[in-house]
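In this section we turn from sequence analysis to structure. A common task in structural bioinformatics is to predict how a protein folds when a small molecule is present, because the ligand can shape the pocket around it. The inputs are simple: the amino acid sequence and a SMILES string for the ligand, here guanosine-5'-triphosphate. Study the lines below before reading on.
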Amino acid sequence: MNISSNSHLVVIPTYNEIDNIEEFIKKITEIDVSILVVDDNSPDGTGDFVQQISENIEQVNLLKRSGKLGLGSAYRDGFKWGINNGYKYFIEMDADFSHRFEDLEIILKNSKDFDVVIGSRYIPGGGSIGWDLKRKLLSSYANKLSKVLLRSKINDMTSGFRSYSNKSLLEIDYFSTKSDGYSFQIEMTIRCLEKKLNIKEVPIIFNERSLGNSKMSRKIVYEAFLFLLQNGLKRWLNIKII
Ligand SMILES: Nc1nc2c(ncn2[C@@H]2O[C@H](COP(=O)(O)OP(=O)(O)OP(=O)(O)O)[C@@H](O)[C@H]2O)c(=O)[nH]1
Ligand SMILES: [Mg+2]
């Protein structure tokens, strides 16, 4: 595969992932990519643990932040760090093994041919394992609703497993995005569609985490629905098809 640790940066936000991070770093450093862990001063010591590794392994970098500032903000800071350090391709990935390494290979393989590659649970070959019915329905209907409200052709707007070229990030002015939870992924996707970027969806299988606690909260879900309604309304009033 034509990727390298000089060009590809996997950005991994962490908050209390001490049960996952050691194994996760072990697995990801087998691939020829650089990684940046963006840790929000995790009380469980995730950041301190990564700090030690980053001092010994060049491929591993750490961006420490003062406290829990949210996922969107972690990606904004992570992308900024990567752009300042000359990386060309940026991959978003969770630290909790919800995203499979075999799917990462496919995203990496496509990363140079498309502006944006989205790992999608809602195209043939994609799916999720381990979620209860409530969570499955929530995710699936949120994505169906997003498609209609935002008049979008993307099937998995909330997916957090994707790649962006640095050119795309700059073109969509990623740093001025405002949202933090699921809506961060939706907001980034809308901007990519508005800029008519070349987006490829590839199937992924999402696995429910087996270790550590989810940071998903009711607040994050409400934020996403509110965001969808506001932006859906804007889009329908403008009658603009993206
Ligand atoms: N730096 C940082 N990382 C975060 C924050 N919130 C979540 N994360 C990390 O972002 C990734 C995704 O968060 P999860 O808690 O798994 O949320 P989720 O995947 O939406 O929820 P589950 O499917 O229930 O696991 C994980 O690696 C988290 O540790 C945050 O506020 N700051
Ligand atoms: Mg997760």
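The mean pLDDT is 91. As an exercise, try to locate the residues that line the guanosine-5'-triphosphate site and compare them with your own expectations.
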